[in-house]
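Pilot study result, target chain (250 residues):
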Amino acid sequence: MTATPDYGNWVSARLVVVLGVISVLVACLGFLYWPLGLLTLPFFIVCLYFAYARYSFSSRGGNLQARIEALVLDHLVWDGAGRVLDIGCGNGPLTIALAKTFPRAQVTGIDLWGAGWEYAQSVCEQNAQAEAVAERVTFRRASAASLPFEDGVFDAAVSNLVFHEVQGVAERTVLLEEALRVVKKGGPFAFQDLFLWKRAYGDIEAVLATLRSSGLASVELIRTCDVPFIPRALRLPFMVGTMAVICGTK
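Predicted structure:
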């Protein structure tokens, strides 16, 4: 029997459960001290919102997580021949999607798989086996801040919701430059992240100007949050409201 791939969910079940428990506790305490009861509805609404978001992202719900990840490939203009790098692969959904979309490609996925995340290299490898692409996919532990590859060894590179999570890097533009370092001249790239989040990236136009001045053949920004299939309720800043794709050719 073929295993079912496990790609996780951007909204953890633990978060929804914790919010639900808090809502119940506040409601119970409200019977003892009525002013606390006034907090029951706000907590319940927040719990319902994140439960709705988790369902929407789930493959059994709206499948929005996969559809949003697919935007990266939609903006990767590549013939699929050669080596491609997925930076921060998590449980491997984008890495595996690359292998399925480009049958001539050799795909490498890297991640640190920290203890704070529900991801693991072993799960990536199991997912690749389940999707019948294991022969063309390799996973290895590495940091986006210091990629263990020589300059220009990949024909293309992608990333999805990773750069804003990297610790110990003051300027996020440095992570983009490091990602582009390992791409061959003329190779395509597509990176999706919270590029519109000013706390992480500052003025995004300044970021784009820095990339353009580095000698890229082309670079553009596409706002993920404006994609029609994303419900308005999920376009809030703490959900997908600051997401965008930076793509182009080196």
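One observation from the pilot: The beta strands are 82-87, 105-111, 137-141, 156-160, 188-193, 218-223, 244-249. A full batch analysis is planned for the follow-on phase.
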